Amino acid sequence: MADHAKRAATNAALSLRAPRSASGSPPVAEDAAWHRRLRTLSLMFFTLGGLALCYTLAAPFLPAASWALALAVLFAPLQRRLEALLKLPGLAALFSLLIIALIVVVPGSFVVQQLLMQLISGAQLVQAKVQSGEWQRLIEAQPRLMPLVAWVEQRIDVAGAVATLSSRLTAAAGPLVRGSAYQLLGFCLSFYLLFFFLRDRHSALHAMRRLLPLRDAEMDHLFLRVDDTIVATVYGTLAVALAQGLLGGLMFWWLDLPAPLLWSLVMSILAAVPMLGAFVVWLPAAVFLALQGSPGKALILILWGLMVVGTIDNLLRPILIGRRLKLHTVLAFISLVGGLLLFGAAGLILGPVILTVTRVLLEIWQTRSQTADAIPASPDAGD
Fold first, then answer.
1. Considering the entire predicted model, what is its pTM?
2. Are residues 148 and 256 in the same domain?
3. Within-domain flag for 169
4. Average pLDDT estimate for 27-47
5. Residue 287 CA to chain centroid, in angstroms?
6. Where a domain ends, among 138, 168, 200?
7. Same domain, 229 and 101
8. Is the pLDDT score of 307 beyond 80?
9. Is the same domain home to 192 and 227?
């Protein structure tokens, strides 16, 4: 009894000696908790700062990485077949690059080179017709256009403007060649990244599984939706480009322009390039018709190009992509146009992918919340 009374007195004295906070916790425990919170906040701050710096470093490479990612998703079946055949992922990725280059780069380079040559020669032809007076004679042969021509000539020096434009286009050949070299560098960077996307895709996906706080089933669902988004975007773009080329080629055939099938193919290829389009073909063709004394045909071609060929892109692409992704047309349109405005040409891929990732993450949050609400609360231990 004496020992018990002595221990009770000692504990009472210690409790009186150690002050407690309002919450009942000793100061040492509060200090430890405060230090843990401080370390956590510091870790979050430096992590977010590091991520922001990493994004700044990677931002210049986003266009190349976006196209490399799109090509990696599209040609993943080819890579898997080559890996099964060659048993070496690196060698299979190298052969995949060669095949992709033959399919994508060679036709595109040929079309751009031919269009550049036609643009310069067409500008020189326009300048020659204006300086020789043939343009004026063609206009005078159309009395109904004379009031419009007189109004334009009062405000614009047509001959001087055409001569200046022609000389600038001719002088721009050098910068265009340098720009082509810059584009070639971008292609090389895309293919450099594509090689590693193809060869190391399994390790990259495994690293993402370890870093992201998602379950395996959720990660599989996210990867599948991103793949579907990229495939839908690329195939939707190609389908719209083919439709634009077909419509433009039909008008070329109806107006009796030369080689309508060839120019239909060229317009399809150009329509698939985000920063170009089919107008690169039909607009010079309209100028050609006007110079040949067919202003009516030129006007028809311009109206067809603006009202049909040009608008079908904004109408058909969101519908095709939204239908494939089960996404409302307005959301698909915003993701495409917003991506182009924010990221440039790479936004054609990044915009829909960002929307898809956000949508999947919101669905995961919703599923987890519903699962948590469905689990009944466990009874208290004392009940």
1. 0.67
2. no
3. yes
4. 77
5. 32
6. 200
7. no
8. yes
9. no
Statement to judge: residues 329 and 258 lie in one domain: yes
Condensed to tens digits (0 to 9), the pLDDT of residues 356-373 reads: 889 888 888 888 887 766
Q: What was the pLDDT predicted at 4?
A: 55
In a domain, 104, yes or no: yes
Q: What is the pLDDT of residue 210?
A: 82
Instruction: Show the domain range for 339.
Output: 212-369
What is the average pLDDT across 334-352? Answer: 84
